[in-house]
Amino acid sequence: MFANASSSSSAQDGGNVVRKILPLGAWEDAKGELALWTGEKIGVLGFRPKPRFEWEWDREEKEGKEEKEFRVRMRRALERQADDVRFVRGLGLAG
Predict the structure, then answer these.
(1) C-alpha 67 chain-centroid distance
(2) CB crowding 29-52: b at 16 or more within 10 Å, else e
(3) C-alpha–C-alpha distance, residues 5 and 40, integer Å
(4) What is the pLDDT of residues 12-67, one digit of tens each?
(5) Is residue 76 helix, strand or coil?
(6) Distance between CA 62 and CA 29 in Å, rounded?
(7) For a disulfide at 24, which of 30, 36, 70, 80, Cβ 3.0-4.6 Å?
């Protein structure tokens, strides 16, 4: 939820304590969202059907799913085509 505001990381074992809360209602797409700041990290809290930001690992996972779905669809299409070829051969129309 939080991203580091600076490049240095702290060795805190405890949770993050929010120091400032600011509404993000100035923009049309920020419906009811809040900016949370801990002093070191900043985050956005809100409720949306899709995330506002996409992390690199999310993008890679999404692309992996899309590739898998493509492979499944392509395999089905090739299987149907092979079935059609077998059917036509059975009719004696293909060599």
Answers:
(1) 14
(2) ebeebbbbbbebbbebeeeeeeee
(3) 5
(4) 446 789 899 888 876 565 567 888 888 888 888 887 777 766 666 667 777 778 88
(5) helix
(6) 23
(7) 30
Q: What is the pLDDT of residue 11?
A: 45
Q: What is the pLDDT of residue 15?
A: 78
Burial 54-86 (b: 16+ CB within 10 A, else e): eeeeeeeeeeeeeeeeeeeeeeeeeeeeeeeee
Nearest Cα neighbor of 39 from 54, 26, 21 is: 21
Residue that the structure tokens 């690992």 belong to:
57
- Which token pair is 1? 């939820």
Measured CA to CA, the distance from residue 81 to residue 87 in angstroms comes to 10
CA atoms of 93 and 44, how far apart (whole Å): 65
Query: Measured at the alpha carbon of residue 43, what is the angle toward residues 37 and 48, in degrees to the nearest 5?
Result: 140
